[in-house]
Amino acid sequence: MDTFVPRLDERFSDPGARATPWAVTRRALEEAQLFWLTTVRSDGRPHVTPLVAVWLDEVLHFSTGPDEQKAVNLAGNPHVVLTTGRNEWDRGLDVTVEGEARRVTGRAALERLATAWAAKWDGQWRYRVTDTGFAHDGGGRALVFAVGPAKVLAFAKGDFSQTSYVPAAAAGS
Q1: pLDDT tens across 94-104, in order?
Q2: Any idea which UniProt keywords this protein has (predicted)?
Q3: Tell me, what CATH number does 18's domain have?
Q4: Domain that holds residue 66
């Protein structure tokens, strides 16, 4: 059963367009090579940066060094947007995930995530699990964050459509 139910926004879709099925959007999140993370600085200015992320258990996960600007921003404001897609006008699917970034510190969860990163990236992203996040072989540390989607949007191109997703539990009520 799908976790999220698609709803076509006809205002921003071609006539006759159909909502993008959740399975298609989920696959885009699972397979994406790169995401753009938007955080908010303490003075309200946005900060956008590319990073790799892992979709696991219907949640998007990313990591960052504790002294990086995005970690500093998240300490003051956990609201984020992660975006992925194609840099082309007329083909592909762009997806945005909005939510709050929450630290992941449980060792079992971090072990699963380290395994997921290594599998997704054919071993190019290998982390050692610590009590507070990940460690790199070169000695660097990384905090790990989970973003449970508060809002997901998919923008299909070619046959243009905008689809929003609501949790299946909320759609049935």
Answers
A1: 999 999 999 99
A2: Oxidoreductase
A3: 2.30.110.10
A4: 4-171
